[in-house]
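[step 3/7] inverse_fold.run input=structure_tokens len=775
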């Protein structure tokens, strides 16, 4: 049993204690996930049928990696029969088999956040309530909160406290909206993400025979990242484990970062209460990072009051200090990072996949993408707007969804008149109202147009158009019975005129839309091939759609390889990279301005910081900018408080100027980052210039600090058109007429202009976005 050899004593205990409840509560990089993986291998080696093991991971990617590792120990076929995946994917699979218990079709659609929002918007509109008060995103978050706490519509209306709270918040109608939203989803044969958990709970509580079946099946349950389970997930695990109590959870309270999604840190802290006989194992040695990184991370997290004290140490090399870079702007920050990656790639033979750029919010991505592209560095952005959420991709998917689930009215409304085929909103509304008042699904009306036509109040021309549309959908459905998903999707793309319509737009954006459709079709071929290789592979369209709906974290999986990873800190949990850039370390950005008002919120931000730093194996960089283009304008920013919380002995400054100030101020945690944000940045030329000159290790890209005299107006598409100069009169769509007083920057993509508008006063604009016209 070679796989046991590499474990330390505590890890060995956790891996080989196979029966009864077990918890591993330990710091980052201490081998929790490794223990979980090896424990599964050990269970199988000891004769447990993999069919009886359920392992729940935080991402699909983690599940895939764990499966591969287990396969190395026990062989591919045993690893294949494991039930391993995210909560959502595992429970979607169970719900499909048992959907009839809940009155759902087994081919139910899974709505992503955007689909859910669309349905909710319609509900809000139909109810004629004020969308300014009942902001759809806010309402959806509230509904999600209810669902994750198992507050169904009925439970809501039986809970005066909740209703009163909503009433006080001037949101009296939330309950009614919730009810209508749930009804709409049910009618559409659809579940949103939270439903996958809520309905599983419902299934297991209402139908004891179903619970018994899965209790017997899942004799061994293992959960990674247990600190981020929400109440709904907690109850599912508890119910499933209650018969055999062979449950192993691993986690780290210091890495609980999903409270905004209902994660409950007490699930892990109360494990001992739930299972008084539980064995608890703590792991103290961090195998991932250098001593410097581990010690720095420990210092920061120790500032949190609410945490389980843990000892974490590293016996790896001491390692380099964490390097801090202060940049002038967001573009400068991105250029520094890309130049640094380029250099380490060349001088230290680092692979591009060794690097990760971690940020607090998705909107920070763009500057880094631009900078990496300029240097031809391959990269991959995780999360954010995934490929499958792009409009054109969703449109084609909506056609396919209708083929599988006709009742999916959200998909139907997307495509019934797209590309335009003369079935306008009035017609659609008439159809909806008619179907509602006769209590039949719209599809039944469409199926029997001849019969219903006289009552619909639509003219013959429109009836013909509706008939043609529906006949086309029916023809696709027939085709689906004999042809594979790729051929059907290709036919849909052509016959629906979607491709033709997209091809009419020959702008770069239009062309890339066609390419995306092509890419979607390619991915179907890949899917068919993949399913062919799996023993019980299922190449059906519904399986394809389900994979997509649940794949938000592993989009474009084929797209791995030698690439720099860009992702939010949230997505980086559990991962590791030799070199990590933690960027945008500024007050109001990280900690986020939304999350620094209470101590609880701040502590969660600090845990995020801890997660980010502990992703690094060998080198960590912190960067921040003194001014940043945000919310449409350039704003000054202050360094993040987390920077000053890292003990000074673990860091080193790339800008020597800061180092000098630091020496003068020495003393632990003296706030060397306390710069006055309002310092006018163009007046620091001399100082900046010196800094650049003395900056030997990492020469940032050359910068002309003198204002440039002229600049080209750049279209958003990147092509430049008109010259613009200081003194020019210009027009701006929103601000009106003004005069250019200052131009700054050498990168044509990133030239900033100061313009004094006659009505609006002075504005700092980025030419690329400002769309100024010279007058
Ligand atoms: N006993 C060991 N000997 C050598 N390497 C180890 C040992 N235990 C763990 N590692 C390695 O240390 C790294 C961190 O392990 P792992 O990812 O399992 O930690 P973790 O506790 O799950 O971290 P996180 O809290 O970030 O999820 C991995 O590269 C793993 O292979
Ligand atoms: Mg882990």
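[step 3/7] decode complete -> sequence:
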């Amino acid at each position: 049993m070679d796989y046991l050899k590499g474990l330390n004593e505590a890890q060995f205990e956790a891996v080989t204690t196979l029966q009864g409840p077990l918890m591993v509560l330990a710091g980052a990089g201490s081998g929790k996930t490794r223990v979980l993986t090896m424990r599964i291998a050990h269970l199988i080696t000891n004769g447990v049928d993999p069919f009886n093991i359920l392992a729940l991971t935080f991402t699909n990617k983690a599940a895939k990696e764990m499966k591969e590792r287990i396969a190395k120990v026990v062989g591919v076929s045993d690893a294949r029969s494991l039930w391993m995946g995210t909560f959502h994917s595992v429970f979607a699979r169970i719900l499909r088999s048992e959907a009839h218990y809940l009155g759902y079709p087994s081919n139910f659609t899974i709505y992503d956040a955007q689909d859910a929002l669309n349905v909710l918007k319609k509900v809000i509109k139909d109810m004629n309530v004020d969308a300014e008060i009942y902001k759809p995103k806010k309402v959806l978050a509230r509904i999600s909160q209810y669902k994750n706490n198992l507050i169904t519509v009925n439970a809501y209306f039986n809970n005066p406290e909740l209703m009163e709270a909503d009433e006080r918040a001037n949101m009296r109608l939330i309950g009614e909206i919730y009810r209508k939203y749930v009804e709409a989803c049910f009618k559409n044969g659809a579940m949103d993400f939270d439903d996958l958990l809520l309905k599983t709970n419902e299934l297991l509580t209402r139908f004891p025979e179903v619970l018994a079946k899965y209790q017997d099946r899942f004799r061994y349950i293992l959960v990674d990242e247990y600190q981020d389970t929400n109440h709904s997930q907690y109850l599912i695990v508890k119910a499933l484990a209650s018969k055999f109590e062979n449950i192993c959870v691993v986690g780290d309270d210091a890495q609980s970062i999903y409270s905004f999604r209902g994660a409950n840190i007490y699930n892990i802290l109360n494990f001992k209460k739930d299972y008084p006989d539980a064995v608890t194992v703590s792991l103290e040695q961090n195998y991932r990072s250098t001593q410097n990184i581990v010690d720095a991370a420990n210092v920061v997290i120790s500032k949190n009051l609410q945490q389980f004290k843990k000892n974490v140490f590293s016996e790896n090399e001491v390692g380099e200090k964490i390097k801090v870079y202060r940049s002038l702007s967001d573009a400068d920050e991105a250029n520094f990072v890309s130049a640094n990656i380029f250099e380490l790639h060349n001088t230290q033979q680092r692979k591009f996949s060794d690097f990760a750029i971690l940020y607090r919010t998705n909107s920070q991505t763009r500057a880094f993408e631009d900078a990496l592209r300029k240097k031809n560095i391959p990269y991959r952005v995780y999360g954010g707007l995934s490929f499958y959420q792009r409009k054109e991709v969703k449109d084609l998917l909506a056609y396919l969804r209708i083929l599988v689930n006709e009742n999916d009215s959200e998909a139907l409304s997307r495509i019934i008149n797209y590309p335009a085929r003369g079935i306008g909103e009035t017609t659609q509304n008439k159809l909806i109202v008619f179907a509602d008042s006769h209590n039949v699904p719209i599809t039944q009306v469409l199926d029997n147009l001849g019969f219903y036509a006289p009552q619909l109040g639509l003219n013959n021309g429109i009836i013909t158009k509706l008939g043609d549309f529906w006949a086309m959908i029916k023809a696709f459905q027939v085709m689906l019975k004999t042809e594979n998903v790729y051929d059907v999707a290709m036919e849909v793309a052509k016959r629906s005129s979607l491709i033709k319509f997209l091809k009419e737009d020959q702008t770069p954006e239009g062309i890339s839309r066609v390419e995306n459709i092509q890419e979607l079709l390619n991915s179907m071929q890949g899917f068919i091939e993949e399913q062919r290789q799996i023993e019980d592979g299922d190449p059906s369209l519904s399986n394809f759609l389900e994979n997509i709906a649940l794949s938000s974290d592993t989009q474009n999986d084929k797209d791995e390889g030698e690439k720099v990873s860009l992702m939010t800190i949230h997505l980086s949990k559990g991962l590791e990279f030799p070199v990590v850039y933690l960027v945008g370390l500024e007050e109001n950005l990280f900690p986020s301005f939304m999350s620094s008002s209470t101590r609880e919120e701040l502590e969660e931000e600090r845990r995020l910081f801890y997660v980010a730093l502990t992703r690094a194996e060998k080198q960590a960089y912190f960067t921040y900018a003194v001014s940043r283009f945000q919310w449409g304008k350039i704003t000054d920013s202050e360094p993040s408080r987390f920077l000053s919380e890292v003990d000074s002995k673990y860091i080193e400054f790339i800008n020597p100027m800061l180092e000098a100030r630091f020496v003068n101020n020495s003393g632990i945690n003296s706030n060397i980052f306390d710069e006055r944000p309002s310092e006018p940045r163009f007046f620091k030329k001399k100082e900046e210039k010196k800094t650049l000159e003395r900056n030997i290790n990492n020469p940032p890209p050359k910068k002309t600090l003198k204002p440039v005299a002229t600049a080209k107006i750049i279209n958003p598409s990147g092509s430049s058109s008109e010259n613009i100069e200081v003194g020019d009169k210009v027009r701006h769509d929103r601000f009106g007429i003004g005069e250019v007083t200052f131009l700054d920057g050498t990168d044509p993509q990133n030239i900033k202009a100061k313009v004094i508008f006659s009505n609006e006063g002075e504005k700092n604009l980025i030419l690329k976005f400002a769309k100024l016209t010279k007058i």
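[step 4/7] annotate
The chain has five domains: 9-100+199-283, 112-188, 313-385+555-653, 389-546, 728-774.
Confidence is low (pLDDT under 50) at residues 554-558, 659-672, 674-709, 714-720.
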